């Protein structure tokens, strides 16, 4: 049987297994400590009765012995049946399970005294013996030897099973809600948002986990705020001297080497673009409210922006897609980043495709460049990571795809990157159409 995956199923299996094991243990103890001694005492009683009957018959005249046996069978609790009448019936109705149950008694009586349990009619325990040279079966009352309330036992077993299910449900109920809240809070943290504090009114162990998780969430939020503040401060402090340098260069244009001036301007523009990416990475979507947006219009505006850019030709392949509830500026920045990367590292024909699939809007950018080495494909979305070919070519920070992935996560979506069959690279932002962004 496969191991259950759910907590409720495992609790049920555990409780039922423990109850079955406890029942087996108690039945074993009952047999060893109660049933076996009782049967051994009954065997002693049977042997004593047999001995008394033998003595009685020896002191009775032969002509009166059958009458005495008939009186004993009729007036006492012990019944006597001639073997000629009972052997065939007892042999046909023998029960191996009953024989195993009375095995302690059979061992105490010995092989000369077979045992038979009568279930139909009057319940009796029959023991074979020899009286006055003839074989007889002695029948003894068997009240209390074997449980006869089978339906009561079945009802008790079903009640035990129901209690097991109830216990598993109560355990599951006390654990399921805080665990579900913890899982939801962890998902929220993974998506970059700060969840509300978790309840601490449950068991102490769950409460301790909730308190620790809340402390972790506060620490992460504080670290994020400090990181954003630091990046914003550094960006501000760097852009001020860059602006002064640009002003000085403009003032020196008439008397300086034009080539040197243009080189300095490009360096300042590159530094300013890097600072801009730092700011984008720190503040993605934080100052923009989500709204309904036509994804086709968004894709068209990005393609129009790159129309006529030297070194690449961007075409839009747009399929009908329902409006999406997004932060349009942030999403447009993500698509533009993908197109910019494709133009910078691949060039040539760049396809910007929009389509819907399985309730998701897919924004894909496809190029015909060299692609990404397989060994580096899994880490190119990490911040400040650039593949080897990119390091040797155009300058950058390695934040382009990291920014795109953060924007996708902000909209409960994902970024997928892979090499194309036949050469090239494809990056796809996949957003659920009916989802509300964080």
Provide structural commentary.
This protein has 438 residues and is of the alpha+beta class. Among the domains are: 7-148, Sensor histidine kinase RisS, periplasmic domain (Beta-Lactamase), CATH 3.30.450.300; 289-432, 2-Layer Sandwich (Heat Shock Protein 90). Helix content is 56%, strand content 16%. The protein has twelve helices and eleven strands. The protein has helices at residues 7-58, 65-75, 83-92, 96-101, 103-109, 150-190, 204-252, 258-283, 295-305, 328-345, 388-392, 400-410; strands at residues 79-82, 115-118, 124-131, 134-141, 291-293, 312-318, 324-326, 348-357, 360-366, 414-419, 425-432. The strands form three sheets. A five-stranded mixed beta sheet has the order 6-8-9-11-10, with helices on one face. A four-stranded antiparallel beta sheet has the order 1-4-3-2, sandwiched between helices. The chain has a two-stranded antiparallel sheet with strand order 5-7. Helix 1 packs parallel to helix 5 (103-109), helix 7 packs antiparallel against helix 8 and helix 10 (328-345) runs antiparallel to helix 12 (400-410). The mean pLDDT is 77.
Task: Give a short account of the largest sheet.
Answer: 5 strands, mixed
CATH third-level topology of the domain at 289-432: Heat Shock Protein 90
Distance between the termini: 42 Å
Query: Element order, helices and strands?
Result: HHEHHHEEEHHHEHEEHEEHHEE
Helical coverage, percent range: 55-70%
CATH superfamily of the domain at 289-432: Histidine kinase-like ATPase, C-terminal domain
Strand order across the biggest sheet? 6-8-9-11-10
Q: Point out poorly predicted stretches.
A: none
In total, the number of strands is 11
Quaternary status of these chains?
single chain
Strand content: 15-25%
SS-derived structural category? alpha+beta
In round numbers, the mean pLDDT is 77
CATH architecture level-2 label of the domain at 289-432: 2-Layer Sandwich
Overall geometry: rod-shaped
């Amino acid at each position: 049987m496969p191991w259950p995956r759910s907590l409720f199923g495992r609790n049920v299996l555990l409780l039922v297994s423990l109850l079955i094991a406890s029942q087996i243990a108690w039945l074993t103890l009952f047999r060893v400590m109660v049933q076996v001694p009782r049967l051994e005492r009954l065997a002693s009683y049977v042997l004593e009765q047999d001995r008394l009957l033998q003595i009685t018959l020896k002191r009775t005249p032969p002509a009166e012995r059958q009458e005495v046996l008939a009186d004993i069978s009729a007036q006492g609790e012990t019944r006597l049946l001639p073997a000629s009448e009972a052997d065939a019936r007892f042999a046909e109705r023998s029960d191996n399970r009953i024989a195993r149950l009375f095995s302690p008694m059979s061992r105490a009586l010995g092989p000369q005294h077979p045992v038979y349990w009568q279930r139909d009619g009057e319940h009796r325990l029959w023991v074979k013996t020899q009286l006055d040279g003839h074989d007889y079966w002695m029948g003894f009352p068997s009240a209390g030897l074997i449980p006869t309330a089978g339906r009561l036992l079945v009802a008790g077993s079903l009640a035990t099973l129901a209690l097991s299910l109830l216990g598993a449900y109560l355990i599951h109920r006390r654990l399921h809600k805080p665990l579900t809240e913890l899982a939801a809070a962890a998902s929220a943290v993974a998506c970059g948002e700060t969840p509300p504090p978790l309840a601490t009114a449950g068991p102490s162990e769950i409460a301790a986990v909730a308190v620790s998780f809340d402390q972790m969430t506060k620490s992460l939020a504080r670290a994020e705020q400090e990181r954003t503040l630091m990046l914003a401060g550094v960006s501000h402090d760097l852009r001020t001297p860059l602006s002064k340098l640009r002003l000085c260069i403009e003032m020196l244009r008439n008397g300086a080497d034009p080539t040197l001036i243009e080189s300095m301007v490009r360096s300042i523009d590159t530094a300013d673009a890097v600072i801009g990416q730092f700011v984008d990475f720190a503040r993605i979507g934080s100052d923009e409210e989500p709204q309904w947006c036509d994804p086709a219009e968004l894709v068209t505006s990005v393609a129009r922006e790159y129309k006529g850019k030297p070194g690449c030709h961007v075409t839009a392949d747009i399929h009908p897609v329902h409006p999406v509830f997004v932060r349009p500026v942030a999403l447009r920045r993500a698509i533009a980043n993908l197109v910019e990367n494709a133009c910078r590292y691949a060039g040539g024909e760049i396809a910007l495709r929009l389509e819907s699939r399985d309730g998701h809007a897919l924004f894909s950018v496809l190029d015909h460049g060299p692609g990404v080495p397989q060994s580096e494909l899994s880490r190119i979305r990490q911040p400040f990571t650039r593949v080897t070919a990119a390091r040797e070519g155009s300058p950058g920070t390695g934040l382009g795809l990291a920014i795109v992935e953060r924007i996708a996560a902000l909209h409960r979506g994902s970024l997928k990157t892979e090499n194309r069959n036949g050469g090239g690279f494809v990056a796809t932002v996949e957003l659920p159409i009916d989802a509300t962004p964080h």
